[in-house]
Amino acid sequence: MAQKEALDIVVLAGGISHERDISLRSGRRVADGLQSLGHRVTVREPDGELLGFLTDTRPDVVWPALHGSSGEDGALRALLELAGVPFVGSTTDAARLAWSKPTAKTVVARAGVSTPASVTLPKETFRELGANSVLATVMSAFQVPLVVKPAHGGSAQGVTIVTAADELPRAMVDAYTYADVALIEQKIDGVEVSVAVLDTGDGPIALPPVEIEPIEGTYSFDARYNAGETRFYVPARLDSNTTEAVSAAATAAHSALGLRHLSRVDLIVDANGVPWFLEANVLPGLTETSIMPQAIAASGRDLGDVYATLAAAAIADAGE
């Protein structure tokens, strides 16, 4: 349950990442939920005056609603830790692990969760070894279809499904637009699901998995944030055994990465009911079309109550 005492909460939203607009929408929704319970909320940009503002005002807790590098790579969280300001979400070290998709895949695979075969390639590799030879080596080891994505970031920006070898060079260019390192991953055919995980101190709890079915094409940036472009099934249309396996994989990934308070784990369920880990998000989207709010509602929880409960958990964690 949410803390009854009114808290002074700073919601961070905006920033300079490619996901700025999504962050602003997430931040507004979080603020609305907290204010509905009587909490005093200030929505702030992560700008040059932020740290001084936090030092001067000493809010009870900061609620980051920042997507992309400004909120998920661990840097801002490290500064909040140094400043002694309680904040909702994963610690610096955990955020850094999850922010790097290749690193997260390695950590989660060691915890026993399946993840697609992949190779990670920095831009410099192509300059040093030659693009043609690098891509030829990749295609000799993998079969299409492939998924090419930036090694960092979210919202499907820079992600390409490669269905023929001659599409790979362009896909690499698109991925490098968003990061200096790209991940090439074997595409797993199956049902795409996302599992929201809540953890307020008693261990991670998987919320009802959400099945994602884009009306056209793939689950792109536009499909994620424009109403009517994706069908969501909450809970996912999975049998009980598969649902249990998906939930177990999500909580295992959350725990292996050391995540805190909330996360969203993206998976593909193959024809045999095996969940394959794709990535974990330390600050999932919280807009009106985002997956985590849908999962929270499907679990019977109130959004404002969940956001306030997470704020109270952050305060408790800071006092330990």
TrEMBL record:
<feature type="domain" description="ATP-grasp">
    <location>
        <begin position="105"/>
        <end position="312"/>
    </location>
</feature>
<keyword id="KW-0547">Nucleotide-binding</keyword>
<comment type="function">
    <text>Cell wall formation.</text>
</comment>
<dbReference type="GO" id="GO:0008716">
    <property type="term" value="F:D-alanine-D-alanine ligase activity"/>
</dbReference>
<dbReference type="InterPro" id="IPR013815">
    <property type="entry name" value="ATP_grasp_subdomain_1"/>
</dbReference>
<dbReference type="InterPro" id="IPR016185">
    <property type="entry name" value="PreATP-grasp_dom_sf"/>
</dbReference>
<comment type="pathway">
    <text>Cell wall biogenesis; peptidoglycan biosynthesis.</text>
</comment>
<keyword id="KW-0133">Cell shape</keyword>
<keyword id="KW-0573">Peptidoglycan synthesis</keyword>
<feature type="binding site">
    <location>
        <position position="266"/>
    </location>
    <ligand>
        <name>Mg(2+) 1</name>
    </ligand>
</feature>
<keyword id="KW-0479">Metal-binding</keyword>
<feature type="active site">
    <location>
        <position position="155"/>
    </location>
</feature>
<protein>
    <recommendedName>
        <fullName>D-alanine--D-alanine ligase</fullName>
        <ecNumber>6.3.2.4</ecNumber>
    </recommendedName>
</protein>
<dbReference type="GO" id="GO:0008360">
    <property type="term" value="P:regulation of cell shape"/>
</dbReference>
<dbReference type="Pfam" id="PF01820">
    <property type="entry name" value="Dala_Dala_lig_N"/>
</dbReference>
<feature type="active site">
    <location>
        <position position="19"/>
    </location>
</feature>
<dbReference type="GO" id="GO:0071555">
    <property type="term" value="P:cell wall organization"/>
</dbReference>
<feature type="binding site">
    <location>
        <position position="279"/>
    </location>
    <ligand>
        <name>Mg(2+) 1</name>
    </ligand>
</feature>
<comment type="similarity">
    <text>Belongs to the D-alanine--D-alanine ligase family.</text>
</comment>
<dbReference type="GO" id="GO:0009252">
    <property type="term" value="P:peptidoglycan biosynthetic process"/>
</dbReference>
<keyword id="KW-0460">Magnesium</keyword>
<dbReference type="InterPro" id="IPR011761">
    <property type="entry name" value="ATP-grasp"/>
</dbReference>
<dbReference type="Pfam" id="PF07478">
    <property type="entry name" value="Dala_Dala_lig_C"/>
</dbReference>
<dbReference type="GO" id="GO:0046872">
    <property type="term" value="F:metal ion binding"/>
</dbReference>
<keyword id="KW-0067">ATP-binding</keyword>
<keyword id="KW-0961">Cell wall biogenesis/degradation</keyword>
<dbReference type="InterPro" id="IPR011095">
    <property type="entry name" value="Dala_Dala_lig_C"/>
</dbReference>
<dbReference type="InterPro" id="IPR005905">
    <property type="entry name" value="D_ala_D_ala"/>
</dbReference>
<feature type="binding site">
    <location>
        <position position="281"/>
    </location>
    <ligand>
        <name>Mg(2+) 2</name>
    </ligand>
</feature>
<dbReference type="GO" id="GO:0005737">
    <property type="term" value="C:cytoplasm"/>
</dbReference>
<dbReference type="InterPro" id="IPR011127">
    <property type="entry name" value="Dala_Dala_lig_N"/>
</dbReference>
<keyword id="KW-0436">Ligase</keyword>
<keyword id="KW-0963">Cytoplasm</keyword>
<keyword id="KW-0464">Manganese</keyword>
<feature type="binding site">
    <location>
        <position position="279"/>
    </location>
    <ligand>
        <name>Mg(2+) 2</name>
    </ligand>
</feature>
<feature type="active site">
    <location>
        <position position="290"/>
    </location>
</feature>
<dbReference type="GO" id="GO:0005524">
    <property type="term" value="F:ATP binding"/>
</dbReference>
